[in-house]
Amino acid sequence: MPKGFRAVRSAVVAALESGNYLHVSRGDIEVKNLLAIGEVGAGEVIDIIHSCDGSHYSSRPHHVVPAIEVHVLKRRGWVHQVLFHRTADVVHQRSPMSNPTMKILFEGDTGQALCERCQALVGMHYTRRDVPFSDGQGIARDILVGVCDGCDTVVAIPPQSTPAIREARKQQLKSIEARLPAVYLDVLDAAMQAVCSEAGAHLRKLFLAHYFQRLVQARQGMGLQPGHEAFVTALEAQQRQRGLQASGATRRLSMKVNTHMAEDFLALLQQTRMSQTELLKAVIARIQMDVLEVRDPQVIEVLQRLVRVAG
Ligand SMILES: [Zn+2]
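That is the input. Now the predicted structure with zinc ion docked in place:
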């Protein structure tokens, strides 16, 4: 097993290049594992790892099985956690006839993996399962996974399952449904009204879709939280000033979404680690800031153009 930064780096790069690695699973598909869900490719991860030096590297014993060392590479906001055990060797030796870059696992293949439930390195076998995403947003059906021989928990996901996982993730989100404090929909409608005097409720989806895309592309998801907190504080201050009680009224927001909007929404959920409801509230607070507070002429012009196109 590789020891020290240089050995670990070259072992990780070699594994990524050959596809000879497994994603750790605790019975679900960890949505923060962007490589497993196909949000980033192995090539991108290799580039980031190549740019690491010793200062980006640390290691520690695994919290469940201390005999196994977890190697951590942190760089540019990314965290890669890698552990080595014999699985990789076993899998590699198992198929000496095939090209290592095209290694395909089948149902019934066996290997080893770390099982947190059994708190040990365990034997596993590959089989097909329906596996939920860790954030509760849907299930990837019938994907090939490694299952613990002892407790039957899903413990490993091979890279060959990633395309199916990515597709499942996209397909699952067909609509966005949330119950929000009524004031958020009022604020969104007021922003729409400010952009276009004939704004109808159908524009809510258009505005939100536009903002999801903008925030994802600019990787500005992280700024949403403080903006939302400021919005809530300002709202409370206004209510206090006018001697009003906080209202408990809620309204339902329900939108059918296409795959592009679904992808952007899911990417933002990942970036921000917010719940769906919190994310929608924070994006509406952002729209309020841009359109009603700052009155950003560029933003307003883009939205006006969108409204015209949507008709
Ligand atoms: Zn187990």
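The chain has a mean pLDDT of 87.
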